[in-house]
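Hi there. Long-time user, first ticket. I'm pasting a complex I've been working with (about 230 residues overall). I'd like to know whether the download I got is complete or cut off, because the file seemed smaller than I expected. Thanks.
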Amino acid sequence: SAVISQKPSRDICQRGTSLTIQCQVDSQVTMMFWYRQQPGQSLTLIATANQGSEATYESGFVIDKFPISRPNLTFSTLTVSNMSPEDSSIYLCSVACWGWDEQYFGPGTRLTVT
Amino acid sequence: AQKVTQAQTEISVVEKEDVTLDCVYETRDTTYYLFWYKQPPSGELVFLIRRNSFDEQNEISGRYSWNFQKSTSSFNFTITASQVVDSAVYFCALSEADSGTYKYIFGTGTRLKVLA
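Hi, the file is complete. Here it is re-exported in full:
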């Protein structure tokens, strides 16, 4: 398993601003994923972020709104841009050593947009 | 299209009762993986089990057991002698391998409340 940390753990942001969420892993991993979980709901995949390639976004999520960086095998960032109250959610990163491995999840970042 | 259905939104049991959480999936891939995760009130997702489509053996781990049946596209999870600490939301997930994306499709989750 991997130990994953996320920063910040929570934040309250103003409408129209941007927030960058960091995801740090204690070991090198091939695959990293970013999810959104709205209160009381299931997880929705935002994008897959593999090192050395552009992130792959799921339907309904675009790079301009959720730019992602993956500079190395232990770190990734997700930016939530031009935020609105609808972006209030928990954002989670997860990692997997290989595609068929189980994913391990970070503790999440709880974002509230006012 | 791929889909995971957890029809039980919420289940309440009394401590020491057995409980089964249902998971039904849909996929056209021949190679796929199924997972169960636990999300306690603290919020962090905890991996419980992975099963690939070619392994229909049931698995037991302590009080937890899983029943995988391809014939009914089900991957059910049973907790024996439930405890208060089992109270959590449990998610079933599907990952299709044929497409090479390995992304997870999560079910909507089942909230389990174990009452003392």
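A couple of notes from our side: Chain A touches chain B through 25 residues (CB under 8 Å). The first strand of chain A starts at residue 4 and ends at 7.
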